[in-house]
From TrEMBL:
Upper taxonomic lineage: Eukaryota, Viridiplantae, Streptophyta, Embryophyta, Tracheophyta
InterPro entries: GH28_Enzymes, Glyco_hydro_28, PbH1, Pectin_lyas_fold, Pectin_lyase_fold/virulence, RHGA/B-epi-like_pectate_lyase
Protein name: Rhamnogalacturonase A/B/Epimerase-like pectate lyase domain-containing protein
TM ranges: 21-38
MF term (GO), any: polygalacturonase activity
Length: 483
């Protein structure tokens, strides 16, 4: 009986496999199942390895308006300021019922600066462009920021932002990658010609607010800093493209978290004429008195370019303190500097508990920079004895190519850099004539083998945490700004 079953099974298999269509279908299903199982396993492993924190989902608004409901015309010529103001006022009236959404359809919607309201969603359709008027006479003047005490470029008042908000809650700016364009070319030209009497305004500025989401839009050609959250909590910036010419677009920082707390910046592309991201918290004695730190900030999954300044900066205005910042999974390409911390005597404050990991530098002049003599001050009343503290900084898994100076840590006798750690560093260099891992007044450690060879200021440990070579002197100075 068993022998007969074997013969029948063999006969069935031969018949099945002799049919080419059946064989092809069987192999195709087998391959598909294998790939599906492989992808499912790897996807599950990826989720287990890095599961992003749950973020609040924007609420669907009970009321929705179209900007054309208020008489707006998207021809790039008509001034739609009144239409935007009426739309915001209409949504403010329903804020207690969950707020409203303002839809901006395709077109070019010229406007002067306008204010947002709470429980508000601004939704920009694909091919929708909000254009800022380029006549500074139509931009309102505002007092200087209390933590700066100065307009940053001029004493006294400063220009407001194109899209502005204060003391708000639950604001969403999103869309199908629509654009907010500040038409900054006129501003940049007048700034270079010294024809402006007040500090230029940001493109988007939200102050003293919470629960802010900015996603799936493009911001471009800001007159000054592009996106400036000031003293805000619970801010998410995701899938945002920020663009300005990489040359001759002065001070067009991408994102400037300023005295902000609990913030995520992720999945963005930034190419601008100054710092891609610059974390701030006030300027000298004004920032010390204001006393609001920037803290608990996660920056990840970015591509950044800055030919004038740095991809990701902390400072130099950091007088309220900066702490608990993580920068990970970032590519910085074709830039002057990659990541930088900058401060000076007179700032006070601190920069501590900063983690950099999984960074890639591609064609960058200087990779890692800590600078303690960035001597720009609002006025002569700052206290030169207000010395900042820089400590507990770690760099892990930093790689790259075409970098002229991979590391430049310039502490000073008054502002030493404390407890800095380097691990898994391999940066291909484009300049080999002199030592290019530069240090001054820095205390810390190197774990394992890194390239290029570290400076002698740092203790050397093996991968198991065993001390191999203590530093010869933490005060050795080997800084050469000519390289």
């Amino acid at each position: 009986m068993f022998h007969q079953h074997r013969l029948e099974l063999k006969r069935w298999a031969v018949t099945f496999l002799s049919n080419h269509k059946t064989l092809f279908s069987f192999l195709w299903m087998l391959a598909f199942a294998s790939v599906f199982l492989w992808q499912r396993r790897n996807f599950d492993e990826l989720l287990a390895f890095k599961r992003p924190p749950l973020m609040p989902i924007p609420k669907l608004r009970p009321v929705s308006f179209n900007i054309t409901d208020f008489g707006a015309v998207g021809d790039g010529v008509t001034d739609n300021t009144v239409a935007f103001e009426r739309a915001v006022a209409a949504i403010a009236k329903v804020s207690k019922k969950g707020g409203g959404q303002l839809n901006v359809p395709p077109g070019f919607w010229l406007t002067c600066p306008f204010n947002l309201t709470s429980h508000f969603t601004l939704f920009l359709a694909h091919d929708a462009v909000i254009l800022g008027v380029d006549d500074e006479k139509k931009w309102p003047l505002m007092p200087p920021l209390p933590s700066y005490g100065y307009g940053r470029e001029h004493p006294g008042p400063r220009y407001g932002s194109l899209i502005h908000g204060q003391n708000l809650k639950d604001v969403v700016i999103t869309g199908h990658n629509g654009t907010i364009d500040g038409q900054g070319q006129t501003w940049w030209k007048k700034y270079r010609q010294k024809l402006l009497n007040h500090t230029r305004g940001p493109l988007v500025q939200i102050m003293w607010s919470s629960d802010i989401i900015i996603s799936n839009i493009t911001l471009r050609n800001s007159p000054f800093w592009t996106l400036h959250p000031y003293d805000c909590k619970n801010v998410t910036i995701r899938n945002v493209t920020i663009l300005a010419p990489v040359l001759e677009a002065p001070n067009t920082d991408g994102i400037d978290p300023d005295s902000c707390e609990d913030m995520v910046i992720e999945d963005c592309y930034i190419s601008v004429g100054d710092d891609g991201i610059a974390i701030k918290s006030g300027w000298d004695q004004y920032g010390i008195a204001y006393g609001r730190p920037s803290k608990n900030i996660l920056i990840r999954n970015l591509v950044v370019r800055s030919m004038v300044s740095a991809g990701v900066s902390i400072g130099s205005e950091m007088s309220g303190g900066v702490s608990n910042v993580t920068v990970e999974n970032v590519l910085i390409w074709s830039s002057r500097r990659a990541v930088r911390i900058k401060t000076a005597p007179g700032r006070g404050g601190y920069v501590r508990h900063i983690t950099y990991r999984n960074l890639t530098f591609d064609e960058v002049r200087v990779g890692i920079v800590i600078k303690t003599d960035y001597n720009e001050h609002p006025d002569e009343d700052y206290d030169p004895k207000a010395l900042p503290i820089i400590e507990d900084i770690s760099f892990t898994s930093i790689h790259g190519q075409g970098v002229r100076v991979p590391v430049r840590i310039h502490g000073s006798e008054d502002i030493p850099i404390k407890n800095i750690t380097f691990r898994d560093i391999s940066i291909g260099i484009s300049y080999k004539k002199k030592r290019i891992f530069q240090c001054a007044y820095v205390q810390g450690r190197v774990i394992g083998t890194i390239f290029p060879a570290p400076c002698e200021n740092l203790d050397l440990y093996d991968e198991n945490g065993k001390l191999v070579r203590p530093s010869s002197s933490q005060n050795i100075t080997d800084i050469d700004y000519n390289i």
